[in-house]
Write a structure and sequence with these properties.
The chain is α/β, with parallel strands linked by helices and about 950 residues long. The strands form six sheets. It has a six-stranded antiparallel β-sheet with strand order 12-14-13-16-17-15, sandwiched between helices. The chain has a five-stranded antiparallel β-sheet with strand order 5-6-10-8-9.
Amino acid sequence: MPLLEPKPDALRPGTHHGPSHDRVPDLVAEGSPGRLRQELTALLGPDKVLWQVSDLVRYASDASPYRFVPRIVVVAQDAGDVSALLAYAHEKGREVVFRAAGTSLNGQAQGEDILVDVRRHWAGVEVLDGGARVRIRPGTTVARANAALARYDRVLGPDPASAVAATIGGVVANNASGMTAGTARNSYRTVASLTVVLPSGTVVDTGDPAADDALARAEPELCARLLAIKAEIEADPELTARIRAKYELKNTNGYRLDAYLDGATPVEILRGLMVGSQGTLGFLSEVVFDTLPLDREVAAALLFFPSLPAAAAAVPRFTEAGAVAVELMDGNTLRSSVRVDGVPADWADLPGPAAALLVEFRAPDTAALEAYERAAARVLEEVETVAPVPSVTNGFTRDARTIGGYWKARKAFVAAVGGGRPSGTTLITEDFAVPPARLAEACEALLGLQAEHGFDAAVAGHAAHGNLHFLLAFDPADPDDVDRYAAFMDDFCKLTVERFDGSLKAEHATGRNIAPFLELEWGPAATELMWRTKRALDPEGVLAPGVVLDRDPRAHLRGLKTVPRVEPLTDACIECGFCEPTCPSTDLTTSPRQRIVLRREMMRQSPGSPVENGLLAAYGYAAVDTCAGDSTCALACPVGIDTGALMKRLRHARHSPREERMAARAARRFAAVESSARLAVATGRRLGDRLPAAVTGLLRTAVRADLVPGWLPELPGAAAELPATERAGAAAVYFPACVNRIFGEPAGHDGPSLPEAVVALSARAGKPVWIPDDVAGTCCATIWHSKGYEEGARVMAGRVVEAAWGWTAGGRLPLVVDASSCALGLGREVVPYLSAHQRELHADLTVVDAVVWAADDLLPHLTVRRRAASAVVHPTCAMRHLGDEDRLTELAAACAEEVVVPDDAGCCAFAGDRGLLHPELTEAATAREAAEVTARTFDAYLSANRMCEIGMHHATGRPYHSVLLRLEAATRP
């Protein structure tokens, strides 16, 4: 064991709530059963089998209120793995559940035996026919697919609120629709073909002209059964009419029986059945969609009404006027939305019964949009809106930022309301549809039913399609509360079916919480046809039992998860998974959601239980060490939960008092540290890569990998001396970040250093900058607070703020910082470490990212004299926090004819020296972006942070450098 390896006890949660009734039992502490693990390892290879208790726990939770612990997790890499696994399951009598994003709200991504991760290795988009069609792999998010299609002015039909995280496999498997899809643009209507691995292992590409012949040879009995069910339905006019009527509304409850009416052959029937099959009939390995036009002219309004029924009554008027989306939000939803960044604070004061409609019109051109706006204006004159708080305008706008804010509030519905639920309760999300003309009546009935059972639910939905969602919170550890929920569900399902002839699941698919009520909606004859469909395709019941069909009337009450309180910073988490696509460590160790899930399980345990000890042993590396600390999870989370901040606190908790003192001493003597680091870099470069790599490798083994940085071949040489500048006449104070005072430019760079370039550019634009003589030994303090060294962070934060206040003459000059992460650090992240007096000084400062300085203040006064043909840019995560990503692309566009931002661009996870401590983190985080970058050659590889540039160089083998260096060369006389 390394000398300074921290003891895991420091990561133990506080006062335990356990043992909880739903805790993971002690027998799972050793992980998966030995024989199961050995057999699957032999079948698939050790890298594809996750078996430790921490793996089982982190995969046990998804966005639903259920929790089922798998026996083992398999990370399938291709269709061959899936076929082999299904053959194994048939031979051994095992069950298999597929899981992609885990954003399902009804437990479809959970299982109690073999759980298969089909997200990690299953991303990919191929645009076809000039954008008219697109081939997508199931682990690709909807947002990623739409990013590729946007270049062709096309878009997918399904548009779920979870598009940033939800993957295509789950969207098709659940027939998810969203804000605008309705029944015409959903997956069932827009999937052109799909490739499916059947439970038998047979692979069917429904787009292959020879698919029916191949299926008839491989699965003759299946073909006969599908055609027999089709003939039976078509021979019954009453059943046929009933099926057609059911799908006039949004309906994802059960299997798509209209597939038997719409498909003429077994393969055509199969294509329809697979949509909405929820992973119970086969695995979707690829989907081809017919795409839709992307109308870019948009106008929207957020209109407030005195009550939910009043808002619902106005819905038909706007749909008749041509609105593509009419979204309903009740008062509880609106008030909860104040947790979302950018939502007006006065929404918290909205009266109880208030409600709102988010109405949007989209058009291909301005003339068409103007016609819609005139129609909308006429409707507004005829409906009764209210303005109960000052921020309400009740007017239409074309401003993209304002419209984006409206949608941000709407899409945060589940997370925002869930974040405000009583601590320790779990969240149920229900989804139903009624005829749109009866929406107002349904709203009144729902409110009455909730009051009858003692719930004060939040309601929102796609009102244009008669589709409502509502959220209930209750305590699954309290039997009386569970009974209350069960009674409500019984009455709600009867109300929806018997009074409104509605759909019990409009777009979230049946799942575990509605499976017991399937026959109530469909009746015995149609339900039996669904059972026969399941037996035809999966006669041994291998795939996802209980997810669509379940004869147990209380199945929806099994597996409800408790949500113990752990840390206030993360207790609001509803485990929705929106954070996972943006997290650099998701494909390496754990995601933010999983970090929280693991700590909640620790809290369910008895102190010192075998399971808790096993989780703690894994948590140090899997959660704390491999967190980049970039806090992009907080940007993705609808309620801003910053799991990165929690990991920094846990790093602090692991430090000994001696380590904290040493870190603080380094802050006080940082000038010497900086000089030593520069000398070490210079020496290392002179010695070549082999010896420094060997020495740092030995030290990392002996001391601790998370303390001693490794040596990478991509590390540049030492920085040059800072250029001389004059204080007199300076337009700004220039703060070269410590990384740019230690590291030079990439090997082969022929030109000025970054500080020389910034000085030259500023002078060239007539806005000279001054570098203070005593800048050495100062830093933005990120080095310390990112590692949890709080005393060191206080020392350096106070020093740099006091120095900057003096340099800038009390804030009269802007402080230009040449690394985006340091601009973020100085501008925002130092504040918690400052004294009251220092905070007053900091408030006087204007900290400016050098990229912003160059784009806003210098570029208008510069003449571009030469441009590269192409450039690819890497926006940093700090830029996302600062909101200045557009300045990077603006500067790149001034320097190159073609500028490409990779669709998969994200945090590189180099995070200061984190990529030197754990290079595997950067390699995992950048894998998809690197694949895009290396697929072609660019003339320039640009970013705005030295360490990120080193990380991207390591990931791609391409020499990244600052966009400011390229701008200096492009404008040099």
